[in-house]
Every structure is written in C-alpha cells, then in structure tokens.
Amino acid sequence: MNKLAIYLCISFCSILLSVETEARVIQEGTVSFDLSGYNLSRRYGEANDTDEFKISVFGGYFFKDNLEIGSGLSYDDYKYKSDPQKRRSWTLSPGVLYHVPLNENANAYVGAGLFMTNNDVTLSNGDTTSEKSLGYTIDIGWEYFINPKIALMVSASYSHARWDSKGFNVTSSAEDRFFWPHIGLALFF
User: Fold this and answer.
1) Domain count, the chain
2) Residue 123 sits in which domain range?
3) Taking the complete model, does pTM exceed 0.85, yes or no?
4) CATH at residue 174
5) Is the dihedral of CA 4, 9, 12, 13 positive or negative?
6) Left if phi > 0, otherwise alpha if psi is -120 to 50, otherwise beta: which for 5?
7) CB atoms near residue 58 (< 10 Å)
8) What is the pLDDT of residues 113-124, one digit of tens each?
9) Phi, psi angles (nearest 5°) of residue 47
10) Share of the chain above pLDDT 90, in %
C-alpha cells in the first residue's frame, strides 16, 4: 500500500507540473490558515460501528511562491456504538505543501509531513490507557478560490503510523494505515 500511495502521489505531481496556464500563484511571504473537519459514522461490522468527529487547523508560511511550510493541530473524538468506549486524540503534524496553479480560480496541492498523536482511551468499565504514535502522511488536494483571500478545500490524506500503547496491564506496539477525506476553508493573508 505504501508503494501504491507514493506512486499515485508522484503521478499526480508529474501531471500537475506539466500544466501551463495563466494561473493563481500564491506569493512568497503569504500566511495561510486552514480549518477542516468532519462528522462521520463508519461501519466495521455491527459490533464495531463508530461515530467520529474530527477538526483540524493548519497554519503555514509561503517561503517561496506556491511552496508552504507549516504545522497542523487536530482533535479527534470517536466512540463505538456497541460499547461506551471513548477515544480522544490530539495530533501535531508539521509538513510541506506545494500548490500547483491550475487556472485563475483553482490550485491543486500535494504535501508530505510527519505527525505525532496522543490518544486517551476510556473503556465502559472506567479503565483508561494512553496510546502514542509517530508517522508520516501524504496529502493530495484541490482548492477553489471564491475571492483572492478565501478558498474552499477538498483533499485526501494517506498516513502510516506506529503505535505504542500502555495501560490495562499491557504494553504493546502496532502499525496502522489510514486514509481519510478533508473538506475545509483556507484563508490567505
């Protein structure tokens, strides 16, 4: 799956870089602020159906035209429908984004970064545990400018994480892969 995600990202970038147009360039020195989130129900079989809410913010600085460096912070809250288990997580995610002008109102972008997550898990019996993860993420997205300072965003992220868990009298490690959509709003100053 990692090779497929990397291949898709490289293919997407090569197609976008071949586009020549009189398009929107985000100037060096621009500061951005993005807000995205979702409220989602996922089905993993009746015993594991979940309700999830996630909100993310990302602040960035364009140190070259169309090239942005920044960091994100996100909060995720989800629970299993069949069990009152709750999970809350905070994630810090520094990264780099390259915005590819498509036309005067739209840009595509690709990005990569690292992330660090802390999960707090509470089981129905009140037992708690903490999980920590480190990983990397690849983002592909599109932004449509409704005016020079505001853009609507749609993107998808692929992440690979390594988890370390402590609690319930057990210490364990695991690897996980995620794919999720983002819908949001970006402000440029």
Assistant:
1) 1
2) 2-188
3) no
4) 2.40.160.20
5) negative
6) alpha
7) 26
8) 998 988 887 777
9) -70, -20
10) 16
